[in-house]
């Protein structure tokens, strides 16, 4: 190795002068000791070596549907594999330094993500997912549709509210819509786990600011105060929509999402 680069399996840096293994087809670079854990078959390399540090969701989405960023898929898969027995999932914070470090590693890796199995604390993985969504240039529901989501969630009649929300969800950019659907199905599974003690209300409080955010990049203090309870209401209402509605966006290609 001439220039230090992260291992495509474990994510830790391969240092200058050390031996490494590189795939001729997909250019995956890894430690010789990590060869046994090498993903197979080859995954095509992304066009760019690393993802941007910040951007809109579509900047991180794959070229084929469902348009859910690999980082989101990998975090969710890891959480569902070993986190559904953890109390306070998504509410208990992970160690901030580790969250920042793993988010940096994943963004640097682009499409060839290092495995998250080596992250001992599942709350760190949850933190990476939340931090990634919070760090987008605009929230998942987008600035332009933000008022429409708030209005739809405020409709007192459940049936009318559900119809309005479905309509607004369908207007989202494809990557935002698919990712929202993927996350809603995941959060419904978390809410059904008795060990997590995270019902729909708890999850909506955690994910309201993250998924719904505000109507602009620089909200006023008054807007922040007014938006907070309404953000939670939007997520709670979205989680009340039937799972089959969300599966309509990601269900048919679900097998493409497994890392």
From TrEMBL:
- Record keywords, A-Z: Metal-binding, Zinc
Q: Which GO terms describe its biological process?
A: mitotic cytokinesis; mitotic spindle midzone assembly; Rho protein signal transduction
Any one GO MF term held by the record is: metal ion binding
Q: Which Gene3D superfamilies match?
A: 3.30.60.20, Rho GTPase activation protein (1.10.555.10)
Report the residue ranges that make up the Rho-GAP domain in this protein.
55-246
PROSITE patterns cross-referenced by the UniProt entry: RHOGAP, ZF_DAG_PE_2
One Pfam family in the UniProt entry: C1_1
Boundaries of every Phorbol-ester/DAG-type domain copy = 1-42
GO CC annotation terms, alphabetical? centralspindlin complex; cleavage furrow; midbody; nucleus; spindle midzone
Q: What is this protein called?
A: RGAP1 protein
Source organism per entry reads Thalassarche chlororhynchos
């Amino acid at each position: 190795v001439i220039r230090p680069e992260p291992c495509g399996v474990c994510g830790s840096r391969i240092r200058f002068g050390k031996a490494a293994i590189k795939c001729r087809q997909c250019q995956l670079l890894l430690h010789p000791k990590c060869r046994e854990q090498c993903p197979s078959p080859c995954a095509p390399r992304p066009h760019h070596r690393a993802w941007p540090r910040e951007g809109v969701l579509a900047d991180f989405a794959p070229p084929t549907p469902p348009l859910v960023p690999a980082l989101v898929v990998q975090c969710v898969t890891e959480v569902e594999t070993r986190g559904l027995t953890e109390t306070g999932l998504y509410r208990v914070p992970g160690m901030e330094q580790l969250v920042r470090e793993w988010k940096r590693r994943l963004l640097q890796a682009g499409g060839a993500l290092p495995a998250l199995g080596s992250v001992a604390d599942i709350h760190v993985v949850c933190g990476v997912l939340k931090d990634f969504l919070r760090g987008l240039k605009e929230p998942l529901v987008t600035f332009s549709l933000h008022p429409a989501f708030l209005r739809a969630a405020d409709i007192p009649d459940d049936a009318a509210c559900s119809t309005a929300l479905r309509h607004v969800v369908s207007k989202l950019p494809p990557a935002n819509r698919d990712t929202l659907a993927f996350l809603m199905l995941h959060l419904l599974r978390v809410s059904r786990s008795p060990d997590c003690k995270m019902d729909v209300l708890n999850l909506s409080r955690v994910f309201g600011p993250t998924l719904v955010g505000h109507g602009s990049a620089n909200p006023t203090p008054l807007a922040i105060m007014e938006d907070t309870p309404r953000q939670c209401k939007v997520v709670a209402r979205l989680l009340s929509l039937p799972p089959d509605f969300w599966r309509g966006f990601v269900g048919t290609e679900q097998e493409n999402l497994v890392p």
